[in-house]
Amino acid sequence: MFTCVSTCLPVFLHVYLCFYVFTCVSTCLPVFLCVYLCFYMFTCVSTCLPVFLCVYLCFYMFTCVSTCLPVFLRVYLSPGAGGWSPQDSDSYPWLQVDLGSRKQVVAVATQGRYSSSDWTTRYRLLYSDTGRNWKPYHQDGNIWAFSGNSNTESVVRHDLAQGIVGRLLRFVPLDWSGEGRIGLRIEVYGCSYYVINFDGQGVISYRFKVKKMKIIKDVIALKFKTWDSEGVILHGEGQQGDYITLELRKAKLLLQINLGSNQYGSILGHTSVTSGSLLDDHHWHSVMIERYRRNVNFTLDTHTQHFRTNGEFDHLDLDYEPMGGGMKNFRGCMESINYNGDNITDLARRKKLDTSSFRNLSFSCMESHSFPVFFNATSFLQLPGRANQDVVSLRFQFRTWNANGLLLFSNLDDGTLEIALDDGKMGVHFNVTQTKNTRIAISSGSGLNDGQWHAVHLVAKENSVMLTIDGDEASAVRTTTPIIIRTGGTYHLGGEEGSVCVCKSFQGCMQAILLDDQLADMHAVEKGIVGVFENVSLDMCAIIDRCMPNHCEHGGRCKQTWDNFSCTCDRTGYTGATCHTSLFEQSCEAYKHLGRSSDTYWIDPDGSGPLRPFKVNCNMTGVCVCVSITTSAEHCQQQVSYACRMSRLLNTPEGTPYTWWVGRSSEKHFYWGGSGPGIQKCSCGIDRNCTDPKYDCNCDADHKQWREDSGLLVYKDHLPVSQVAVGDTNRQGSEAKLTIGPLRCQGDHNYWNAASFTTPSSYLHFSTFQGETSADISFYFKTSAPYGVFLENLGNTDFIRLELKSPTVVSFSFDVGNGPVELAVHSATPLNDDQWHRVMAERNVKEAVLQLDLNYRETRPAPPQGHTRLELFSQLYVGAAGGQRGFLGCIRSLRMNGVTLDLEERAKVTPGVKPGCQGHCTSYGMYCRNGGKCVEKYNGYSCDCTATAYDGPFCTKDVGGFFEAGTLVRYNFLSEAAAANQDARFLAQPLTAQEVNLTGEAVAFSFSTSNTPAILLYVSSKTQDYLGLVLRQNGTLQVRYNLGGLKEPFTIDVDQRNLANGQPHTINMSRINRTITIQVCTHTHTPSLRRPKASDTQLNLVKTLFLGKVFETGVIDPVLIERYNTPGFVGCLSRVQFNGVAPLKTALRNPITDRPTERQSVPVSYQGKLVESNCGASPLTIPPMSAVTDPWRLDSGTIHTDMFICQPLYFLFLFSLFLFSLSSCLISPDFCHPSQVFPVLGFEPLSLCLSLSLSH
């Protein structure tokens, strides 16, 4: 039934027409023609003109190659009707329907044979205009197999996703009832069509009503079919250089459009877009071009490309008529040609257009005389040639995507002949077994597996073999090897078991086959009169371009074989089977929480979206992050500056602005830096301090002196600045200088966008997820519940779902019409641990992938045939939905196909769901290093490094300074009023005025210097007690303690090595009562010692800590002052910490001020020049150690050792530790951090430490 629906004002005219012709052809009698005709017409009474008719047409002609009986094939027939069933001996059964003329078919329906056990469960639909060159119906990029019936009575209807046009339909059963045999009744639905034949000479000229047209909008639609790969379909141009051309090039459709270019070449309007492939298949293809100004939709069949023309003009200026066909000799057929509302096909039929160039205008489509043969991997075709001939002459055309395959094989009278594709080249192999074996191998051509038709011509005779590809005689390959050939008379096409060729069988199409100069009669082959074939499809070429449309995203290159395609994603920034998944993180915030430091990174803010990755400078301190997208940032700013001399800016207060800028949405903005949207002012106008108070911008005063208006643009929805138009510069003496700073953005709202689901029935809903052929979903979750649905979206039968199925299993399930598919990943540890876990799922036409925490991954390939589109219609539910087990916990950063869903905003208005999620420190607190404290934030967390000697987002950045001669840092512990309290206890926290008597210290710092002697660190007191760490004249380290109880200060000569070698060294020293442990971490070895027992246990009334030099009143060690204090320490100190105090960091972060109140509030001060630098901690290259220096020999005068330092066994142990440390550092640099790598042994990055443990 063919249906066309239309209405005429209030009147409806409907004509219902049924026309049936049934034809049975058999060999039991010469010809049986059984015709059953019924004709109905119902007409609504009306005289409405013009009349719009709604026509319901039913028109059938069925040709049955089977038993000759007057069969009744229409569905819904009354009891007693039969159906079609072929003979059991028919090896290639099909039911053919002749619609009488070309029709558009939109639906088909089937039913089993009446009152029997015969029905068809699966079938294929072919269509043609002439009964030749059949084309299979395609859907989802595959030759489609329709599901049929499961009994004899039910009717199964299929609406065709893409309507087909043809006169003849052929139903080919693939599977049928296991209880009986093939049985079929059918119904077809559609409407009529008209066509124009182009012979390569004729042109239809469509003239405008006016000579010159200035067109802002175009809608062009047509359908065409051709067997040529070249030809112009439509062309129009104007005298100003505008043009529009639609043409075929190499069987692809090329649209070229130019809305205008200027004569200087600064504006180039030429734009070209290519679509489609294999369009010379002599089947109908529909084209639609929709243009509005510079925006164009270009649709070929069902694939639409959206693009914007080049240049700046938006009108198509045409003063010649557009033409259809003709140029470059387009040959083929067109129908339904519409140009801006005019039906050119109908105008040509009514002779309203100029068709004088046609020698014979025809409104019927001339058909090709080719008879293609389609081979699959198991096909075989045997054809006869001429036997016992001394010349082999073969011609045929082929097309394929496979680079390898055997096309032809023949057993000669005394040898074999093979023609095969080898890596895209055509090769011919003769193996002649005369008196001696003679083998001839020649090849020609390249890239012949491009899907295009290629012609092969082979002539072999005595002493000569010539191979010609595509008629190019100049590049024909010849050989003059002497051979004697006798043909065997039989040729095998597509594959042969007796072949010695290692290549696989040919998959593709052949046509125009001439064997020994005889044209193969494929009609006779089809009737079984000539030749033998198996699994060959005759009179059709079912080639599919699997790279069109290109499923390889983001510029990925598509490669294909006959059965499959693959994507090459090199240099795209994306990965996966279809180059869908970005290789980079979405923001600097994401890199930050992977533990990365400030550096330049590639980011991809929209993931799998259209925005390409780009490089940014990430400042991980949280100050600013430079990015070029603002939607997800928490704050953005961009500096603009306009320096002027007699050049007005905004022409304030009432004038029209001379200068404006264009932002993100291509909108003009008339405010300047320091102001805001809608306020036509500059920064000085907001602050009311402009040079001339009558104006709101300095430049608007129009002074002859240079002025400037500058400030920050902070309204992020308008940023970045893409263009600036400067207007007032054309007067004599006018000058202006424009400066646009980089866009700087901070934070990533999307990364922390979260919602908390507090009840099992709570959920958030969003619009339907659009992920037909490619879908990716990623999010973080944390929960203490053992199960729950993360999200779900439903269709009629299609669905997609992500779920926590058990405490250790996450599943990803979906159905695109081929049945449910489920992927599951199993975690080795429970996932309901209230820690953040990341889930990433992807489905495309190639595969489905599920990944958990970057550790667990499951992949499932898509079926080679079947549905590929995910069709959903319900809302997307995040959380519980439709009776599913609800999710309890937090979900954040939910991104679907590159778009982050705003969970927080939706949660604000949804019961049972709260915006945000607390407890980030539970998962991320471990990243706060070196004693940094994790601080919970609404949208994340931060590390508080206040009480550490480090800085940076994770308290891992060394803070140090370079000391010149005379530079010192003073840190005051004790005010004058606090000396009375003398409670003694060990302090692990910052000292206060009441905590000044110490029974223990923890000292840590790094240094590098080449100068000696020097004071590294000195702690004074209100008494005679002190602590000092100094470098002696020979560069060795000495620790000096005076705690009382001894006549002389207690000294420890830590090492005989020269530490003043310009290399960084780390000191870690601790004292608890009488136990002292010292670690000197260098890039050498690590002995360990025990200390003697002596001295008091308390450092009383701690007063001041000095770095670099001592400048103190009161009792001071005279030896220290005389030997070590002049000229002072010259070099680098880094990450200095004394108990809980970081004196050097405090000094660098609190510069000296002239305000007395501020000086009193800050306990630290310094003298001399202090420059921030981490040179005291950087790992530098170690020069070779002098052989004179023995790093293992220590002074035993004050230190007693019980370690066998010099024994080889101990050396081997230390060397093993060194290798372990080195390998650990190479594997993971984070593992080498002092706070992470074996603190007992005292390892530093790529270094070991000298450890001393003393008691006194």
From TrEMBL:
GO cellular component, one term: membrane
Residue ranges of the TM segments: 12-39, 51-73
Membrane topology: Single-pass type I membrane protein
Keywords per UniProt: Disulfide bond, EGF-like domain, Membrane, Repeat, Signal, Transmembrane, Transmembrane helix
Location of the F5/8 type C domain: 84-191
Domain (Laminin G) ranges: 195-365, 370-541, 753-917, 975-1175
A Pfam family of this chain: F5_F8_type_C
Domain EGF-like: residue ranges: 543-580, 918-956
Fibrinogen C-terminal domain ranges (all copies): 579-621
InterPro entries: ConA-like_dom_sf, EGF, FA58C, Fibrinogen_a/b/g_C_dom, Galactose-bd-like_sf, Laminin_G, Neurexin-related_CASP
PANTHER family assigned: CONTACTIN-ASSOCIATED PROTEIN-LIKE 2 (PTHR15036:SF33), PIKACHURIN-LIKE PROTEIN (PTHR15036)
Similarity comment text for this entry: Belongs to the neurexin family.
Protein name, per record: Contactin associated protein 2
The organism of origin for this protein: Oncorhynchus tshawytscha (Chinook salmon)
